[in-house]
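Section: Multi-chain targets

For targets with more than one molecule, the full set of components is provided together so that the structure can be written out for the assembly as a whole rather than chain by chain. Components appear in the order listed by the source. The example entry contains three components.
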Amino acid sequence: MKSSLVGQAVILAALALLPAAGEAIYFRDKISWRSAIAPSEMVTVEQARGWGDTAIWVDARPDDEFANDHVPGAISLNEDRWNELLPQFLALWAPGKKTVVYCSSLSCNSSREVARRLRKEAQLSDVFVLEGGWEAWLKKKR
Amino acid sequence: MIMCLGARAELKWEQTSVELHPAANDKQAVGHFKYQNTGKTPVHFKSVHASCGCTTAQSQKEEVPPGDKGEITATFNIGDRTGTQVKTVTVETDEATNQKTVLTLKAEIPQQLEITPNFVFWKQGEKPDTKTINVKVGKDFTVKHLKVTSSTPDFEAKVEEAGKGEFKIDVKPQDTSKVVASMLTIQPEDSQKVFYATARITNAPQVQ
Amino acid sequence: MKTAEKLPTINYQLSTNRRFVWRIVDFAVAGIFIYAGALKAIDPVQFASDIDNYKMLPWSVSVALAFYLPWLEIFCALGLVFRFLYRGALSILSASIVVFTLATIAAKVRGLDITCGCFGHASQNWSFPAHLITNLAILAGLLLLSFKATSGNRLQNSI
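Its structure, encoded as tokens over all components, is:
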């Protein structure tokens, strides 16, 4: 029995859903459906605040933005002066600490880059990027 | 589909993507994006906006008369960045079509030494075993010898060659009873440039 | 009469040769899509990022397509190989090539510097003309096969 072209296309489209769903489940920890960073690497303001003193806040924004205002107790670590600022951060860090890196907003890239370098170069674990960045922090402050 | 049949402003870009290869000691990488107004009416720049604070972009002029040429200069401040860096500049104009153009600046930052990890630590009371820092020489560089010194006598650092373009630095603390830190200065022979790694004895982890 | 006896044999030989040539085209086109699909299925995270670079769709849609499209390509390509749901497979593959090509042209016009994503990150260093020519060549192969299929070839297996 010959089925129509549309019927055949629909069957193929449906067949492809099965392995696609399987892959989506397999890769669920590696990809976030909400933003372009792995879910295991992102943290919300509430979660980070919940960590209390275990969290070290890292401001990845340029010096002038940090000087203007920043999360209380945060330390500045940006790529402009990485070599100069890194030792200060490492002096504060201790095993068991959770590092929360933020930049201005969800769309800015600096926090991801700083987090990536801390994981790769300093080989630190428990390094997170703050979802929504400084903007999200300000919203929660109100 | 009804297209506007009147005179149109049209900015044609020579290229929208520039690849730069700054030298090792360069502080900036500059990209030039040339354009020409091939339309019949002037084009106005509404905004020129870079993707990060590390890049500034300027247009020579705000208005481009028909037939005129110009360029947008994008200056990327390298700072302490390494590897492949991609920065974009979004240009908005008052053209009827194609109002937004994304200019891409790709810079390959040469790195003389890649130091991994650049941080070694021991918890207070932990056995003072040797920990190794691996140093890889960048592909466009030649380093025959490395000199490593510790800023405090609390740590000992020994360098060994580990193959072509690779070195190993073995770091060992004298003891781990006190919380101390040291800056390890890593300098290639015959080079002014200095690299750093940190060695520390940390507090024991806090238990929640 | 020897000539009359020879004619059916010659016709059969020509028909078999033609069938063989069309099967080669089937396999060649299918091979390209299986290769392209497999490259993207192995790294859906990177493929999602490549789709997102076109800046045409929300991120969540890019993720959904990154998981789904490679398998659609692979299944359709297998349809060509095994002559299973053949016409449906041809139409889906043709549509996907057209959409990919139009998206690549649109991105180029908008001044975006992106990798096509068609062959996963393997095609990241291809130039725009190379992408375009490759896509058009694949489309030509698909259109030829579609034409052959709709011209009533009795060897086509449709279900």
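The longest strand of chain A covers residues 55-59.
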